[in-house]
Amino acid sequence: MSRRNNSSMGAVLVIGVVVLMFILVLVALATPVILLLILVYSSKVFNKKNESLKNNESDFWLNDSDKADFKEQVSELVRVEGIIADAIEMADDAGVGKNKDGAYSARSKLGKEVRGILESNEPVRDELTVSLRVLQGKPMMLWEDFNLLMKRVQAALLSLTLWALTLLGYDYFYNDQQQGSIFTPYYNLAVNYFGGASSVVEVSSGEITLITSATVVAIASYLLWPLIPSQPVAKLTPLPAEVTLLNVDIH
User: Structure pTM?
Assistant: First the structure.
């Protein structure tokens, strides 16, 4: 029984290693292709948006519908806050007591009335406040999204460049391969894993190191570059201000 369990565990371990190796090889082979696709797609989206820019704060400003919603919600918020303030003033002037949780006591008729007013209007106030904050920051959020898109384009281009430089550098300093053969390890690796048993090609430890290094450099640079605080898109369009009643109709 023990031998059978050990045999089963060994088989599972072998299968796990094979699956892991397959995934790693797939990642190594797919990395440059995926980065190239990301670069092409992101560049297309970025260029399309960039063509519509006017290079001023109106580029990401609220549209007419958002402007109308903003002014309507501000007006409604002022009205609701007025109702809440009047109810609180009425309760305080009448000396309505408060419970331990800070809510007005409902023992008196006025206390019940005030609590009803507050309980029905405070949630409305809170919802309006959140909605207005979203609208106030919407132009800045859209600008940040566009800035991140530009950084994604830069990251894809940088990672592909570093990937190629890693191949060239390794080939130049550690291998005696002729120029133009730096992609041979990728071809050999692909043939070994997808070409069948009759197509096995020797892949040296140096070639494995080359592929691993290039893959790690490419993935790391693509993931880390957008995390660096920068605003490259500021050269194309300025960061819009927060929306207020004073500037909502300026743009």
Answer: 0.78
